[in-house]
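tool_call predict_complex ligand=D-malate
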Amino acid sequence: MAWVERGHGPVVVLLHAFPLDHRVWEGPLEALSSTCRVMAPDLRGFGRSETTGGRVGMRQFAGDVAALLDALGIAEPVVLGGLSMGGYIALAFWQAFAHRLRALILCDTRAAADSAEAAAARRVAADRVLREGAAALADAMLPKLFSAQTIGQRPELVASIRAIIMANDPRGIAAATQGMAERPDMTAALPRVRCPALVIVGRDDAISPPAEMRAMADAMADASFVQIEDAGHLSPLENPRDVSRAMSEFLARLGP
Ligand code: MLT
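tool_result ok
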């Protein structure tokens, strides 16, 4: 498993969205590194990490994160953040390894499972990526990942994300797609999340809308909610300054 890390101090691990890599966290990696040891892995099948085909479930990804911490000798509870699919994995990590968590940061993500139709569409998409490559998936996803403002005004950012998608192994993309289709509904589990949590959402997020994320925050015992202006689903990329500020303030409240 490949990862990047910056800084020293309490460990913060940031999990990327689908079908991207650690670079979605570039802004917060830099901003938080003055006070924390910030790590951003490439999840199995993405970036420079190894690919396994078939289906990779959220629990498997969470196990990979635990194994990375073990390999690095990190036994203390960590702050775990996840963007979108990274958030699905962060919740799976909480379910399996709650004792290893100091706090959660859930960014532009959902607790709900896929509907039957959405899961079926994902399986079709996974087969297509294996047959034809990721171009069609990239074209279908890109308009939903960003706010209309980002699409209109920052073509270079949109192009850089397309390049990340296209550089990923189609087998890794398909395996995660199959895994997301089968992820469980975590909504009923949210009241059992007892660690501090920060819920962040871009104001124009079309995939995990602010109202749904606010309801997630409300369902947890100790969660705060921050809405980010000038951002859609990929808020850490679209508005890294405000996302980093929300994360820094949350980490400062947690203390050393
Ligand atoms: C992501 O950004 O990780 C995806 O939009 C998640 C999903 O497809 O459910």
